[in-house]
Amino acid sequence: MKQHFANLIEEEETAIDMTPMLDVVFIMLIFFIVTASFVKESGIDVNRPDAATAVQKDRANILVAISSENEVWINKREIDIRAVQANIERLYAENPQGSVVIQADKLSNTETLIKVMDAARSAGVYDVSVATQEE
Q1: What is the pLDDT of residues 116-126, one digit of tens each?
Q2: Tell me: the pLDDT tens digits for 49-88?
Q3: Shortest CA distance to 63 belongs to which of 133, 7, 4, 116?
Q4: CB-based contacts of 19, cutoff 8 Å, min separation 6
Q5: Is 43 helix (H, G, I), strand (E, B) or coil?
Q6: What's the CA gap between 21 and 107, in Å, rounded?
Q7: CB atoms within 10 A of CB 132
Q8: What is the dihedral sign for C-alpha 37, 43, 49, 50?
Q9: Three-class SS of residue 20?
Q10: 3-state SS, residue 83
């Protein structure tokens, strides 16, 4: 009986408890997921016009791109001009602190730019900017 008891004590001493290490790993994983900032892209490359007074904007959460053929892109999808307001409303509801940045190509029409700006304001977003290149 004593021998059996001694074997049990020996087995307990050699076993390593992994629970605390797994807890730390899961806490670190949650920390990195919560603190990660994900970069959103509009979906197309745009040749932005130059501007001498360009200012860096930090928190641009809703990116709208207008191509040289006046196609409107949001979240890597081409959007009809009539659906821009609904898409901006949805994205703004997800992040009410966000702002809209319009990346209009040099060759796009001013009319398309104004329609997108009006759609953003109609969606309740009044912090609307136009992206440019610094000279």
Answers
A1: 999 999 988 88
A2: 655 555 565 566 788 889 889 899 888 888 898 999 999 8
A3: 116
A4: none
A5: coil
A6: 57
A7: 17
A8: positive
A9: helix
A10: helix
Strands 77-79 and 100-104: unpaired
The length of the chain in residues reads 135
Query: 65: Cβ–Cβ under 8 A, 6 or more apart, which residues?
Result: 42, 43, 44, 46, 72, 73, 74, 102, 103, 104, 105
Q: Name the CA radius of gyration of the chain, rounded.
A: 27
| Residues 60/21, Cβ–Cβ less than 8 Å | no
Q: Which two tokens stand for residue 129?
A: 């900017």
Give 27's pLDDT tier (boundaries 50, 70, 90): very high
Whole-prediction pTM: 0.60
Q: Alpha-carbon distance 38 to 112, whole Å?
A: 28
Place of tokens 């509009």: 42
Give per-residue burial for 68-86: e unless 16+ CB within 10 Å, then b. Answer: eebbbbbeeeebeeeebbe
Residue spans of alpha helices (H) in the chain: 2-14, 19-35, 84-94, 110-122
